[in-house]
Design brief:
Length: about 700
């Protein structure tokens, strides 16, 4: 018994396995058939997902001591300080400073820490450039405050020294297209550079001469030679600022103020050399010496006039040099200021020139004012929203990789959400992002109209659009906002399926991105798998969107030629039964009699069409009037005489109510034709005797 049960169990398992294998083979066969029928069908199997790693076991938290809640005691990792009866979490800056590791190499182009360090170096350089002339010319440096001046001087020297030892030896550089980050190579590159030589000269220890000649500020003049750090800081800061022209204007103004500053120091030195108040031209020593000398320098360099005439030869030569220097310096400053302002407003100037040229063109061809106003509105809104008229002109100078990075940041999130493109090759979507074109639509502008051929897809960047429909075509069906996509099916539809199905109107100002169909076709050539996937998705979308009205119960499209009424089912069944009986029975005889009657009628009246309506055993025949003699076709030959063929009497004309009868040779079938009031109508009746019916039964 045990052996029999084991055998039956194994056979059941084998049968179950065989059934599963048969089922799998059937499914595989269906897939192969589907792929043979439609070559675009690909495997529906998804890539296997990686098995998730097991999470590390979480240690159970230690229970808090009795009588103390978890929220009452601060965490061990949190550093807290008590202030005003409150506990604040804080991270000690000393611990953060200890844990900080200085980078082994510094990128001078993108490292913000290096830009911040350059700011301190430039501040030290400005201290030396502005205050060394003041301390040399004016009596502001005295033995009482000499220690303060020296403290700041040596602090600036320390900044210079740290810049040489710590930062400049860690700057990355490019050699042969490679970014060099090796410590030894970076140090050797700095030591061979011109900047290292200038840095060494600016730190010459001339301060040791203080012990012999005293604290003379002119001995610190080499500190002003660190000008290369100043120009490097300008370049790095302009690359970071969004409105760099503002900084350029401030810097140019500082150049002018510095030239006036140097001139005021020289004027006070000349006055002290001649003697304060010795002549009417020199400074008389009253009031604030720096302010009075600066005022004189402004009047001299800008050549305002109203200055006292120089008396001595030294004063005349000094004044002449001042005038020449002032004219040259002031003209250079004005030219540089003009370049800065011109570069800052170059885009605005281009916008105004384009708008003026367009207005001139419209006035020349006498364009209506309404159209001109819309064109002006487009110019103003486009410039105000984008800051430029065409974004492609700005990005055309960038390489493809950088343009792709910008396009990904702007539009990838929107494009990846389009249902048509989900599952496609990621690189194909990147190529589409580079082909997007920005367009601005004014309020109530038609983005697309119903029935148009769709050749592009739209992505809403800013603004809203409305989809119109309804009986009048003006009802708002839906409002699409920023981030929405429409018109994507038209990119792949073919055979008339790419026509717009509704009107889309801009609701207010709308910024849209457009992807044209020709651009997509050029991209899909390189991605055949994505092309097949898109084709399948487009077919499914078109099928789901094309729902006929008859399925919904509504009235269908009106037919120009109505369909012919179908043959009654009962009559079809009778004819089928007659065919199975081999041509016997009264119905078969009736079919044969009607056929012969049609042939006879064609001979009598001519070739035409007849509509036969059969009710039980009575038929009404309507024949059209005879055609013109030119259109008559020759009469067909007579059919061979049947044993039951009726013998008829022909008449050229029949009167109202007149009856024409015909009987078969065996007197079983009798056919009568009765004329009616209408010329083109006659009543045909066929009678079958009961004797024949009984015999057939």
């Amino acid at each position: 018994e045990h052996v029999g049960s084991a055998t039956s169990l194994s056979s059941a398992i084998i049968n179950t396995r065989l059934q599963e294998l048969v089922k799998l083979f059937k499914e595989r066969t269906e897939k192969v058939k589907e792929k043979l029928i439609d070559p675009d069908v690909t495997s529906d199997e998804e890539s296997p997902l990686a098995s998730p790693g097991k999470p590390a076991p979480v240690a159970a938290p230690e229970p808090p001591p009795e009588g103390e809640l978890e929220g009452d005691k601060p965490s061990r990792d949190d550093h807290c300080c008590e202030m005003l009866c409150c506990i604040f979490k804080c991270q000690p800056w000393l611990d953060r400073l200890k844990n900080y590791q200085f980078p082994s190499s510094i990128d001078p182009l993108t490292n913000l820490m290096y830009v911040l360090w350059l700011f301190f170096v430039v501040m030290a350089w400005n201290w030396n450039c502005w205050l060394i002339p003041v301390r040399w010319a004016f009596p502001y440096q005295t033995p009482a405050n000499i220690h303060c001046w020296l403290l700041v001087d040596y602090l600036c020297d320390l900044i210079y020294l740290l810049d040489i030892l710590v930062f400049q030896t860690r700057l990355q550089f490019i050699q042969g297209g490679d970014i060099i980050t090796d410590k030894k190579a970076m140090k050797e590159n700095y030591l061979r550079s011109r900047r290292f030589k200038m840095d060494v000269v600016c730190l010459l220890p001339l301060d040791f001469f203080y012990f012999k000649v005293g604290v003379n500020p002119l001995l610190r003049f080499p500190r002003c030679l660190k000008y290369m750090a100043f120009f490097e800081f300008n370049n790095r800061l302009e690359a970071l600022l969004t409105k760099a022209y503002i900084y350029r204007v401030i810097r140019t103004t500082a150049y002018l103020l510095y030239s006036l500053h140097i001139n005021s120091c020289l004027y006070y030195w000349a006055s002290a050399y001649e003697g304060l108040g010795s002549t009417t031209w020199v400074y008389d020593g009253e009031g604030n010496s720096y302010i009075r000398c600066y005022y004189w320098a402004v009047k001299t360099l800008i050549t305002i006039g109203g200055l006292p005439d120089p008396k001595t030869l030294f004063e005349i030569v000094f004044q002449l040099l001042n005038y020449f220097t002032g004219i040259f310096a002031f003209s250079v400053m004005i030219g540089q200021m003009r370049d800065v302002v011109g570069a800052a407003t170059a885009g605005q100037t281009y916008y105004r020139s384009c708008m003026d040229s367009t207005i001139k063109y419209m006035n020349f061809y006498k364009i209506p004012k309404t159209v001109q106003n819309r064109v002006k509105t487009w110019y103003e809104y486009t410039w105000r929203s984008q800051g430029m008229l065409d974004e492609s002109e700005l990005l055309v100078q960038l390489p493809d990789k950088m343009r792709l990075d910008i396009a990904i940041d702007v539009n990838y999130n929107i494009m990846s959400k389009v249902a048509l493109f989900q599952g496609c090759d990621r690189q194909m979507i990147f190529d589409m992002l580079k082909r997007l074109r920005s367009v601005v639509y004014l309020p109530n502008d038609y983005v697309c109209k119903k029935g148009e051929i769709g050749r592009e897809m739209y992505i809403i960047q800013a603004g809203q659009v409305q989809v119109l429909g309804g009986p009048d075509g003006k009802s708002v069906l839906v409002t699409l906002k920023a981030g929405s996509v429409f018109g994507e099916i038209s990119l792949l539809a073919a055979g008339g399926g790419n026509r717009r199905t509704a009107n889309v109107v801009a609701h207010g100002f709308a910024n849209l991105f457009i992807l044209e169909k020709k651009d997509l076709n050029e991209i899909l050539v390189h991605y055949p798998e994505s092309q097949k996937l898109l084709r399948r998705k487009a077919k499914k979308m078109l099928k789901s969107n094309s729902k006929p009205k008859d399925e919904k119960g509504g009235p269908g499209d009106p037919l120009i030629i109505p369909s012919k009424t179908g043959t009654p089912k009962l009559f079809k069944a009778a004819l089928a039964a007659t065919g199975r009986m081999g041509g016997k029975g009264p119905l078969a005889q009736l079919r044969w009699r009607l056929k012969e009657l049609k042939e006879m009628q064609a001979v009598q009246v001519g070739v035409g069409r007849m509509t036969v309506r059969l009710c039980s055993t009575r038929c009404q025949v309507s024949s059209p009037p005879p055609p013109a003699p030119e259109s008559l076709s020759p009469s067909p030959p007579k059919s061979p005489v049947h044993q039951r063929s009726p013998v008829t009497s022909h008449k050229a004309q029949s009167h109202l109510g007149q009856e024409i009868s015909s009987e078969s040779s065996d007197h079983i079938v009798t056919i009568r034709v009765i004329s009616t009031a209408q010329e083109d109508e006659e009543i045909l009746t066929a009678e079958i005797s009961e004797k024949e019916e009984k015999e057939d039964k």
